[in-house]
Amino acid sequence: MRSKSTKKDSDEMKKEYDLSGAEQGKFYFPPDRYKYPVYLDDDLNLFFSDAAKRRKKDVAELVNSVLRREMENFSELMPEAESDSGSKPAPKRKKA
Question: Does the global pTM surpass 0.70?
Answer without folding.
Answer: no
